[in-house]
Amino acid sequence: MFLGYNTNGFPHHSLEDAVGVLTGLGYQGVGITLDYHALAPGSRRLAEQTAWLKAFLVEHGIRSVIETGARFLLDPLRKHEPTLISPTAEERSRRVAFYRHAIDTAAELGADCVSIWSGTPRDGATEEELLGRFRTRTGNAHRHNRGLRTHAQAI
């Protein structure tokens, strides 16, 4: 067993500072929450941050996982939206594209896994409809040999 902490607990720090603080405190692992300041899809700093973080993790022997729980990254008005069980296919496809980015990032960094969340039902859909939405396939997790871990949520 080893101790790790999530960069989500450092919302007012740069990715570099957050990881540096955690390493300095003796943590052996880091959960990297993809967010505006950390490996965000489409960021102008994405390649630079990824290269820096990969080198830092290797140099310091730190294990990592990728977390996908950024609150407003995909929708500035609705926290944690869209999700895998959002009502429209367009919304769900935005979440799947984000998860694909997370899986690709995990592969690039050598992260142990990607943590995902199915979402909270918001439209009165039946359990069968929700399960159908959740079965959306990301496809590239196995290609990169990355595990997916989902957060259990009560419906």
Write the layout of secondary structure elements.
Elements: E1 4-6, H1 15-24, E2 29-33, H2 46-60, E3 63-67, H3 89-109, E4 113-117, H4 127-134, H5 140-143, E5 147-151
Parallel strand pairs: 1-2, 2-3, 3-4, 4-5
Tell me about this structure.
It is built from 5 helices and 5 strands, in the order βαβαβαβααβ. With 155 residues, the chain is of the alpha/beta class. It has a single domain (4-151), classed as Divalent-metal-dependent TIM barrel enzymes (TIM Barrel).
List keywords for this structure.
155 residues; 37% helix; alpha/beta; TIM Barrel; five-stranded parallel sheet; 5 strands
Q: Would you give the CATH topology?
A: TIM Barrel
CATH level 4 superfamily: Divalent-metal-dependent TIM barrel enzymes
The helix content, as a percent range, equals 25-40%
Strand content bin: 5-15%
Tell me what the CATH architecture is: Alpha-Beta Barrel
Largest sheet: number of strands, sense, barrel closure: 5 strands, parallel
Instruction: Give the H and E element order.
Output: EHEHEHEHHE
Strand arrangement within the widest β-sheet reads 1-2-3-4-5
As residue ranges, the low-confidence spans are none
User: What is the approximate shape?
Assistant: elongated
Number of strands: 5
| Domain module count | 1
Separation of the first and last Cα atoms: 31 Å
